[in-house]
Amino acid sequence: CLKSLWPALWTEGEAQAASMAVARENLAILEEQLRGKKKKRFFGGDSIGLVDIAGVRVLSDEEHPALRRWANEYLADEAVKECLPDRDQLVAHFSANRDKCISIAKSMLPPN
Q1: The predicted structure's pLDDT at residue 1
Q2: CA atoms of 67 and 28, how far apart (whole Å)
Q3: Which superkingdom heads the taxonomic lineage of this protein's source (predicted)?
Q4: 3-state SS record for the chain
Q5: Rounded distance, CA 77 to CA 34, Å?
Q6: Which are the contacts of 82, defined by CB distance < 8 A and separation ≥ 6?
Q7: What pLDDT does 46 receive?
Q8: pTM exceeds 0.70
Q9: Integer Cα distance of 73 and 34 in angstroms
Q10: Burial track 63-98 (b if 16+ CB lie within 10 A, e otherwise)
Q11: How far apart are CA 78 and CA 58, in angstroms?
Q12: Residues 38-70: pLDDT tens digits?
């Protein structure tokens, strides 16, 4: 799922639209995992696991309410708070390296 988001974030035009379609399909699968018959707090149940650690901040309450709830609970967990890097520093880092990120994302796209 996360791999499909990179091209969607760093490309433009038709390539971005195609990548966003794939990303949305993958997010819908994750959404269903959290909603399911047994509503889960995290992907592994009540405790944080590897899938939870890989989460991203590109979700809306309207499209993916269970994923937004999960993201909020994940970020509120004390163990996670201790390990998270400062968001402003991350934004500054990736903004400064935007061209490199775009090149990496484009290299992940399938050939035309």
Answers
A1: 47
A2: 9
A3: Eukaryota
A4: CHHHHHHHHHCCHHHHHHHHHHHHHHHHHHHHHHHCCCCCCECCECCCCHHHHCCCCCCCCCCCHHHHHHHHHHHHCHHHHHHCCCHHHHHHHHHHCHHHHHHHHHHHCCCC
A5: 17
A6: none
A7: 77
A8: no
A9: 12
A10: ebebbbbbbeebeebeeeeeeeeeeeeeeeeeeeee
A11: 22
A12: 777 777 777 776 566 655 455 666 777 888 888
Domains of the chain are 2-108 (1.20.1050.10)
CB 6 within 8 A of CB 104: yes
* pLDDT score for 96: 80
Q: Are 70 and 42 in contact (CB under 8 A)?
A: yes
Parts of the chain with a pLDDT under 50: 1, 56
